[in-house]
Amino acid sequence: MPELPEIETVRRSLLPRLVGRRIEAAVVRERRLRRPIPPDFAARVVGQRIEAISRRAKYLLFHLSRGDCMLAHLGMSGALLVRATGKAPQCHDHVCMRLTGRIELVLNDPRRFGLLAVARAEAVAELPELQRLGPDPLDPGLSTAALYASIHRSRRALKNLLLDQAVLAGVGNIYASEALFRAGIRPTRRGNRVRLAEVAPLLQAIRAVLAEAIAAGGSSISDYRDGNGRPGSFQLRFCAYDRAGQPCRKCGAVIRRVVQTGRSSFYCPACQR
DNA sequence: AACAAGACCTGCATGC
DNA sequence: TGCATGCAGGTCTTGT
Predict the structure, then answer these.
(1) Is A3 tagged catalytic?
(2) CA angle A230, A135, A157 (to 5 degrees)
(3) A2 catalytic, yes or no?
(4) Nearest to A4 by CA among A212, A205, A237
(5) pTM
(6) A64 class by beta-carbon count within 10 Å (0-12 exposed, 13-18 middle, 19+ buried)
(7) Strand C reaches within 7 A of the A219 CB
(8) A251-269, pLDDT tens digit by residue?
């Protein structure tokens, strides 16, 4: 489900509701996520105030008052929801945190590909999950030359490179297809066949599609919701993703689907070369 | 070393 | 109706 724009939307929806509140109680109902939630998780976060919420790629970082940092990833199907206290837990509510102000922060994740961890703030950057990550595409410090360097030395398909979080951190299956559509490059093109002159427009396309998706509140395919339970609307603007068999919005040609290392890619055979 | 395949999960749509 | 199959926004581990 959630890629960079959805996570950023969740972050923004949580900010005004959570920052300044203290965690009064925490219940771990199911600890078997991508990695098991450690046994001391609840005891460790209780009593701490949420001072800030930041994002690194598809990860959310909750900065806590006693110097800890809670790291959350939503996997494919995860949601962080804010609710009034006293409601019965729903199916797949794995962690419930009661906060001051009679609200609860709930991690709900049917497929359990998500992650919840806590570390000292000064040590979060050393966590293996974060250490593997490449540059954030929205980081203005990321240059065309740097992106070209990591793309051009590989023979893998460009779509797979965009999905590789060590190359670019935050792009997922939807926005990889959408960005390649805008850049006019086929998802199957090998990295070493991409020219330097194509990388500036590619990076521009990636940034534009992510920014527009954030402005639209993300994409809701079936179940993505922000912290307030609201869906996004960017799925209405897809040009490629999930549009196999439908006419290209630019030229009318039929959009195609191909499978690359087990994942669907969508492209216009006329607009994309 | 660089890559793809498989594994991890549940839920939903489709087709028989 | 029930059952089997395939697919889904991600990432980690295994094997070639």
Answers:
(1) yes
(2) 90
(3) yes
(4) A212
(5) 0.97
(6) buried
(7) yes
(8) 999 999 999 999 999 999 9
